[in-house]
Amino acid sequence: ELFISVGKIEDIKCLKNFRAKGQAFISFSNENEAENAIKKFNGVTFLGKMMLIDFAKNKIDKNFENYSEEE
Q1: Which residues contact 51 (CB under 8 A, 6 or more apart)?
Q2: Taking the CB of residue 12, how many other CB atoms lie within 10 A of it?
Q3: What is the pTM of this model?
Q4: FRET pair for 50, CA 20 to 30 Å: which of 2, 8, 23, 40?
């Protein structure tokens, strides 16, 4: 519900392995909405932790489904 205030969410993937605990990938319907999410929420405290919001930076980030939940 937090991120719908900036645009239409197409997909959300939450990573559950130890290394990526608390990491999620949110896909918006367009780049402008994603930029608005970064501007609005980067550095904001949520559930007691500061959120770090940015675009995926590398191929692994962009292909987040390749992460193993076993790790």
Answers
A1: 41, 42, 43, 44, 45
A2: 10
A3: 0.70
A4: 8
Each residue's pLDDT tens digit, 2-39: 899 999 999 998 877 766 677 888 999 999 999 999 99
pLDDT tens-place string over residues 53-62: 999 876 555 5
- Among 71, 44, 49, 56, smallest CA distance to 13 is for 56
User: Mean pLDDT score of the chain, rounded to an integer?
Assistant: 81
Answer for the pair 22, 11: CB distance below 8 angstroms, yes or no.
no
Paired tokens of 29: 């319907």
* Whole-number Å distance between alpha carbons of 44 and 63: 26
Residue pointed to by tokens 């609005």: 40
Please tell me the distance from the alpha carbon of residue 39 to that of residue 9, in angstroms, as a whole number. Answer: 16
